[in-house]
Amino acid sequence: MDYFKSILLEFLIFLLFFNKTFALYEDQVDKFDWKQSYIGKIEFANLDSLKKIIVATEENVIASLNLKNGQIVWRQVLENPLEHRIKLLHVQKEAVSVSGDGHNWFVRGWDLSSGTLLREWTIHLDKNMTSYFTVSENKLLHIAAVPHSHIELSKYHLLSGQNSGKSIKINGPWIKDLTQCTISGLFFACLDENKVKYINLLQEQKMYAYDLSDVGKESESMSILPFKSTESSVILVKNDNAKVLRLNPDGSFYLLPYEVSPSVVSATNGEQNILLHISQMVENNGKYQITNLDTLTGEEIVFTIETNKEFWQPNILCAICKGTACRVLVQTLDNSLSVIQLPSGKIVWTREEALSQIVATEFVELPVSPLDASIEHEFDIGSGGVIDMFKKRITSQFNQLKLLMSGSQTTTNTTLWRDDFGLHKLIVLVTKVGKLFVLDTLTGNIVWSKYLPNTSPFDGLNNQIAALFVQRTARHHPLSPQCIVLMKSSISGNGIVYIFDPITGNVVNVKYLSSPIQQAMLMPQETENFLKPLIIFTTEGLVELVPESAIMDLYSYRHVLFMFNINKDRKSISGYSFRHSTEKEAKATLKWNVDFGPSEVVSYGIRPASEIVHSQGRVLGDRSVLYKYVNPNLIALSTLTDDPLHKNVHTFYLIDGVSGLVIYSACHKRTREPIHIIHSENWLVYTYFNERFRRTEVVALELYEGSFQSNSTHFSSHAISQLPHVESQAYILPAVASAATVTLTERGITSKHLLFALTNGAVTQVPWMIMEPRGAFGPSGPEEGFIPYVPELPLPPEANINYNQSLLRVRGISVSPARLESTCLVLVHGLDLFYTRVAPSKTFDLLKEDFDHGLIVMVLVGLTIASFVTKYLASQKAVRQMWK
Amino acid sequence: MYNTVFLTLLTFNVVYSSNLEYDGWATLTLQHALEDVANPVYTDRGNISILSLRTGSHNINQEPLSPSDITKIKELSASNKFYQLKSTVLAADGTVTIFYSSVKACMLAESELNDILSVSLDYVGRIIAVTLAVASTTTCEGAVVPSSNLKEFRTTVFVRYTDIGPSPDTASYIQKLEREREAKEKGELKDNRSFLAKYWMYILPVVIIMVLSSATNPDAAAGGGGNGGGR
């Protein structure tokens, strides 16, 4: 019988996964989802031909873009940009990139048309030195500079990596400040004491100098930049004016007599050698112009850039000319990349590369359509009398009928109105450069964008973050929705509060704080205008309110408002209370603190504020109820401690945010980051990397109050009758997770799925059901639907929500409930942006797509007709029988 | 008692790294604020010496409350304010940490000063939090309590440890698979039950279906029978 039991179990497991296959059908691809790929801020760009641009970016990406439309032809993602940097991109027959971390440099050759890796070899250095690379006739020259001493020059064969000869030391006591040094072609040049000192790397020991005082220039506040041209040149920049200094192979120099802007490139146009530079016009609303300068004749042609959009300090990356027509690749301060066509000055295409580094996301509901709004207001008790109301109702109903007839009620992509199922929303995104974007969930198109100059994100626990809050949703019809972004000024570090309408992009208010922001939170209560006031806690311990008029609301809720803050050194966490606020001043008082000593907080997790817990308990096999411990104030924290014995020790804490009581703690020895925490309902999941077994482990925790609920109406952190009972279970995740979250639905009835973004490019969903720790069954044995413990979490490819579209370098996943209970909207962001919707319990509240409406109508009509016919026949028969 | 403290002091003076493996001690100086203001004045309440962090054995030394303090607690309780506690922890390695904590004064008064002090330790036995709590299932919104109930703190100290977290249980799973495999092998070897005993679950549905189909189709069955009779 045991044998059959095991077969039955296996069959059940099979059934379970069979049920949970969420793979799409082929024709559903792109129907609910969209993907956008980005490459990041461009560092090196090369126009390979009239068709392609080869670029290398700050995100360590090598890519090829189509010059005509800006689409990515191919993209190769290299190592983590936090450790590795691309130092050189050389395009000839193939693209050669040099990237590395200072010790190891990888030289890679890429095929220009397909982007396949053709070759790879490494340069290994013993010491970490400032390295420069340049290419000369199939030789890669590696220059390691030691300030005040010398430079070391090594030559390698570009394709094979063969070291040709020993490395040569060149004396260079004149190399002082490496920030004032550059490499251009075969010249290594430094700015030193009013002189440009340079050497030809092939002639080795001879140093040349160009005296700036000869031309009446001082080196003070001057900088030297490389200049890409057919001849070796450098640009000398002073006060936004630049001059090109040409260095000839024999050591002589030639200073071009033209004053240009620092954003200058050279372009060959047949025999002509021209310079293209961009500058802002003083007149004409500060529009930008591109100047085409012939270096031989000094002839200048000026083109104005025709654009309605804001253009933030454009910088020319490269240009290609054919006759009078030029195509110029321009990158602006907000990381948008454009190609400008000359002589027309029109922008051919624009890529918003700011979207490659998103620091905050939020889903925003759309307002109801005017028609729905009119229905809502139909029964408003207005000032008018009975006749007025009647008139209002008749007109609104007439309008409804008219709209229904014309069929314009169906939502199209262009209308920003709420749909019935809440699938059409807007996504507000804040990027690292300080540009706001609002995207449409249906199409992925940018609805509006806004650049906030001189802003930067805050330093989060392990990434950079910005704070984005929805103060008022679109539900309060005549009032427009409102969002707040908190950023810091990149100049002073003080807080900037930017208040805007997410639908239209209108600025409501911008506030500049006088001190840096430490913590911010949205009050759960609304003011009379349905605004949730934002409480900002500054580093000086002051409390600011947005809007300031909300002080009375704060005052009335001062006993129930609490805030926690992980302190800047990450070694302690404090809880604050607002109970000492007065009617005039908001005040935060320290209520509790937890001091982790030498440990450092690396991750934290709180429950989503909008989450609803549908069932308060779990029914056990013996029909008794195990009540869930649903503490809305629970904070989950992970700390890492450097331990001499166990390497890194990861400790997981559960702390009550009101009382500061440590509810649970557990440690894992010999572990390290990445650590992710998922916190939902009465359970938590955290992942960490186990160094002993070299694998990612996932721990699931469930908290239960027991068979009695201490307070069924509301939870209070003050009343602690007993600590929750914690059940835990650990699993192996056969992959490395770069982000993790859990699905969120409107009413919390739908089962929960965990979403893990894996480093292999997949975003996979794991049902919470298979992770639930049900270690001890109790006296009644295992429950119905109990899944036996399997230590390794299954990650079937059908569970990937992004099917075959790999998402690279995922930084976060954000979720939002749709109005359909079954559906949850998901946005995965990283180098790629991927939006889709998931239905953890399948779309139980939605008819199937292939549902045959015609058939059901036919059957119904047929049945009705048949019943009438039979009724008629039956009555006839009855009459006939009575006559008998 | 002072002797023991002195002795422990001597013995554990050299220990700093791990308080749990070598067993450490800690002294908590408790001060409380009987006025709920933003910057309160803390007055002495007593001290607790945890003699052994491993076993959690401790000495509590708290003086009875003075009449003026009792009145203050009553006032705090009646006005639904917070009773604040400041604990200064002196650990075996000489580090001093201050922890703040507070409870609703009315809950403290209603419990007749029967409070709980939760001392949380991290994995090596460093004190990371000292939290005051009152065991109760309900919260109060201000209460008047007779002075006779507010004389002396009856504190319970809980030293709470950080356990080692769970790890994937591969061993027992492999054992389970092994057992299943063995059971399967055994089953294959000596499964000498009759055919019906082995496959009854497959035969039964077939039989039921046959019975049902013949029951729903009695005419055909009857007609067949009639034919037979006619021959």
Automatic annotation (TrEMBL), chain A:
Subcellular localization(s) per the UniProt record: Endoplasmic reticulum membrane
Signal sequence annotation: 1-23
Membrane topology according to the record: Single-pass type I membrane protein
InterPro entries: Beta-prop_EMC1_1st, EMC1, EMC1_C, Quinoprotein_ADH-like_sf, WD40/YVTN_repeat-like_dom_sf
Residues in ER membrane protein complex subunit 1 C-terminal domain copies: 680-883
Residue ranges of the TM segments: 854-874
One record GO biological process: protein folding in endoplasmic reticulum
Top-rank taxon: Eukaryota
Cellular component GO terms, alphabetical: EMC complex
Domain (EMC1 first beta-propeller) ranges: 23-131
UniProt keyword terms in alphabetical order: Endoplasmic reticulum, Glycoprotein, Membrane, Signal, Transmembrane, Transmembrane helix
One Pfam family it belongs to: Beta-prop_EMC1_N
Family stated for the protein in its record: Belongs to the EMC1 family.
The protein's assembly and partners: Component of the ER membrane protein complex (EMC).
Protein name as it appears in the record: ER membrane protein complex subunit 1
TrEMBL record, chain B:
Membrane topology reported for the UniProt record: Single-pass type I membrane protein
GO annotations of cellular component type: EMC complex
Main localisation: endoplasmic reticulum
Record has Transmembrane as a keyword: yes
A Pfam family hit: ECM10
Record has Endoplasmic reticulum as a keyword: yes
Subcellular location: Endoplasmic reticulum membrane
Signal peptide (UniProt feature, chain positions): 1-17
Key words of the record: Endoplasmic reticulum, Membrane, Signal, Transmembrane, Transmembrane helix
Family indicated by similarity: Belongs to the EMC10 family.
Official protein name in the record: ER membrane protein complex subunit 10
Record lineage: Eukaryota, Metazoa, Ecdysozoa, Arthropoda, Hexapoda
Gene: LOC108733389
